[in-house]
## 1
Amino acid sequence: MKLGVIGGAGLLGSTTAFCVGMRDVLEEIKLLDLKENVLEAHVMDMSQALLPVSKTKVTKADYEDLGDCDIILVTASLPERQVANRNEYLTGNLGVVTPICEKLKAVCKKDAILISATNPVDVFTYVYWKLLGWDKSKVLGFCVNDTLRFKWAIEEVTGKEFSKLDAMCIGEHGDGQVRLYNHVTYDGKPMEISQEERTAIEEATANWFRTWQQLDSKRTTGWTSGVMLADMIEAIATDSKAVIPVSVVMDGFKGYDHVAMGMPGVFSKEGVTKLIDVELTDEGKAQLDKTACKIEDMLKSIDM
Ligand SMILES: NC(=O)c1ccc[n+]([C@@H]2O[C@H](COP(=O)([O-])OP(=O)(O)OC[C@H]3O[C@@H](n4cnc5c(N)ncnc54)[C@H](O)[C@@H]3O)[C@@H](O)[C@H]2O)c1
């Protein structure tokens, strides 16, 4: 399969290209960005770096070169700044995403799969689906970092071994994420989390975002996101049927409509054709309802 990366000179576009390139699961990665010189430098550097470990080629692309790409990753965005939450990027990034949609619509294969990481992710997943007119199974938003951080916080608080933990976040990539405490397992068995531990886990995840923002590094989580995006791309390229939380357009799933949000999805070479219907507690369902209303309101605010 071939991957096109729009925003390929930026942190997330380039780290993802490198991480997935190292896995040797793609024929070619085509990088596209407005910053021509930085892009050229990444292509020159990465195409040599991958030679000892991978057959994946890395090339520089324009839109017309994306016609044979099976997967398109969009990480293009306005530069990072200090924000209270990711939704502050909405209006600015709408101006970035809308023209990209027009160009992709003109050049891409009809069965291409789009992955969007641009924040706010859930809103833009819906925007891409609406503007591109592609099947909803092929328009995917990147939100799995929340699940990774939930597992990290459980490890920090309980001292359990990360590799034996399983847990999941659904809902919004942002404050409206819903951590599914009733589905946490350790070594394949349900794991009890006390109220005290739960409070500490909530604090650890909230403090993580605050601390990151206070650094004002103008940097996103390029390493974490590069690794997790590479997981999604590898699952598609290898048709693995792996279950990964992903933002998708809801059309009646669990009673939600006119909104996109994170749900566990089964990844294949067709995209995400199946969602897993996780059981929610009354509290989880109430949280998810609130999140759906919030994302719907953001979509209304941009006339979607
Ligand atoms: N969903 C997540 O979990 C997650 C995680 C990390 C970052 N992000 C988001 O991903 C986005 C990218 O982050 P980053 O760290 O790579 O930012 P960055 O500033 O390093 O890179 C963005 C790149 O997009 C390019 N660009 C802007 N407009 C373009 C256009 N019209 N066409 C082509 N290229 C264009 C810029 O030149 C730049 O190279 C941000 O919106 C960030 O918030 C999401």
## 2
Amino acid sequence: MTCRGPRPCNISTISHRWIGLRRRTDSVTTTACAVAYAEIARVDPSIGSSILVHSCLATLLIAQHGSEKQKQNYIPLLARLDMISTCKGAPGLRVAKIENKVALRIVQNGDVMFDNVFVPDEDKLPSLTSFQGFVEALSFARIMVAWVSIGVAMGVYDLCNRYVTERKQFGVPLAAFQLTQAKLVRMLGNIQAMFLTGWRLCKLHESGKMTTGHASMGKAWITLRARETVALGRELLGGNGILTDFLVAKAFCDMEPIYSYEGTYEINCLITGREITGIASFKPPTLKKRSFL
Ligand SMILES: Cc1cc2nc3c(=O)[nH]c(=O)nc-3n(C[C@H](O)[C@H](O)[C@H](O)COP(=O)(O)OP(=O)(O)OC[C@H]3O[C@@H](n4cnc5c(N)ncnc54)[C@H](O)[C@@H]3O)c2cc1C
């Protein structure tokens, strides 16, 4: 798959190029990376999500924290998709396929269980010594998840805009009704606002000024608006909005896990809330014994 730009580039390498594994002149900015993810998700959120996890979490962590040998061994293979990031077999590691998902159905998710897993020294990422090291990759991934949801919303808007001009009721296309137009405008307004917020996040990241609170607020707010946008799109299609034959229903379902993965709406709000108030509210206050008076 290629993305448009001054030079064609393989989409699986975009994050790796961003992290500067290649010559500086060949690197891709955060903004370019984000727009590429949005364009993939505009067509298929499952593929967008798969490439995102493969590139932004697995490969990025090796690039940022791996030894030179690990980078040489894995990154070219991962970048060409000759190797897919996945759990390698190890004693104590168990992976069970999660069945019966209603969304992102071509993505195979696993329940991963660790029981005294032995990790040989050559598989450890030398400079990843705390969870904090992982937070930087997570924040980058959160920007990209936000852009995946912008892509999903744009894809639904495209489909709806076409559908309402083709389907006729009461002798006119649905697009002729004022209430239909109002929904389209709400969707487009959301997309514009999501786009600008996502663009600002990318610029903050590129200038080294983005905090974890920025990334979390961006992911939470943009996915919330995207969820509203795809719900409006589903409404616009009436009964056809729940049929798999029409891709709006698929995107409507796919938006749900995107709203929840890479930090749920609530947890991302709490991360930003902690940053702006200085108070962590992840755990409730200690419960006091109830009085029976
Ligand atoms: C398609 C998909 C792919 C995923 N990929 C990965 C992956 O690659 N790696 C990975 O590690 N995980 C992955 N996840 C897991 C995902 O990150 C979790 O589902 C998510 O973090 C929520 O955790 P949970 O499902 O355990 O829900 P729970 O923790 O049980 O939460 C249920 C609800 O309670 C809310 N809640 C929980 N705690 C609080 C609190 N303190 N305050 C307020 N509300 C709270 C949550 O926001 C949520 O709405 C994936 C999930 C999906 C659906």
